[in-house]
Write a structure and sequence with these properties.
This protein is α+β, with helices and mostly antiparallel strands and 225 residues long. Helix content is 25%, strand content 24%. The protein has a domain of 146 residues: Aminopeptidase, CATH 3.40.630.30. The protein has five helices and nine strands, in the order E-E-H-H-H-E-E-E-H-E-H-E-E-E. The strands form two sheets. A five-stranded antiparallel β-sheet has the order 1-2-3-4-5, with helices on both faces. Strands 6-8-7-9 form a four-stranded mixed β-sheet, covered by helices on one side. The longest helix is centred in the middle third of the chain and has 17 residues. It is globular and about 45 Å long. It starts with 8 loop residues before the first strand and ends in a 12-residue tail after the last strand.
């Protein structure tokens, strides 16, 4: 599958972010490859091929009721790239939006049907951690979702002991709000429940207790776009 829509590209001081199209085979492969070869967790998330990426998008992709300023975009993952003129993770040259260098991570916005608001997530290849790239990318993506698409309320979650990601959430502008549970599995498996994962919200939001997230792709869904 392919899409003819113009790509959304964001530029920060050091990075290029491009909104991936899950119905474009090359983009779907990049999303999948990052999980399989980068951040891991693809087995828990039920991601083994590009059809799984599309099922994930079908379940958790942008929904019109949250997009108050523009129609829902095709994708929900920003691929994080260094610019081609700065292919090492120690460089500080301004990003050149004309040429993408290596993909170093992703920033996602998930519109989970079990949750009252969409959530922002981020991950980097381990070799590029420690440079505040995740913070820089997540801030840019969050600003686009809010200022261009009109998402008003956003939360972020981390595993209970992921202090690194929790510090990133605070740098991005979230505040700690409470906890939720995470249940993996297709279908959801109570033996894979993680209790008391950390929840963060934007200032002024009120967290709701008792929420559970189900991040694993459910394979009984249709692939129709």
């Amino acid at each position: 599958m392919t899409s003819t829509e113009s790509p959304v590209v964001l530029q920060t001081e050091r990075l290029i972010l491009r909104l991936a199209d899950p119905y474009n085979d090359a983009d779907a492969e990049k999303i999948l490859s990052f999980y399989v070869n980068g951040s891991g967790g693809h087995e828990k998330l039920g991601l083994s091929n590009i059809d799984d990426v599309r099922l994930q998008h079908k379940a958790n992709g942008p929904r019109a009721e949250y997009c108050t300023l523009a129609p829902p975009p095709v994708g929900s993952y920003f691929l994080i790239h260094l610019p081609a003129n700065d292919s090492t993770h120690n460089g500080h040259d301004p990003a050149d939006t004309k040429r993408e260098g290596p993909q170093i991570g992703m920033v996602s916005m998930s519109f989970r049907p079990e949750m009252p608001w969409p959530d922002l997530g981020w991950a980097l290849h381990a070799a590029y951690e420690g440079n505040l790239y995740a913070t820089e990318a997540a801030r840019a993506a969050l600003a686009w979702w809010r200022d261009v698409i009109g998402i008003k309320e956003v939360w972020a979650g981390t595993l209970p002991n992921n202090a690194k990601s929790q510090r990133c959430a605070e740098r991005v502008g979230f505040v700690r709000a409470g906890t939720m549970d995470i249940v993996f599995g297709d279908p959801p498996d109570e033996s894979q429940r993680i209790k008391d994962a950390a929840a963060f919200v934007l200032p002024g939001m009120q967290w709701r207790s008792g929420l559970t997230v189900y991040p694993t792709v459910q394979h009984n869904q249709s692939l129709s776009k």
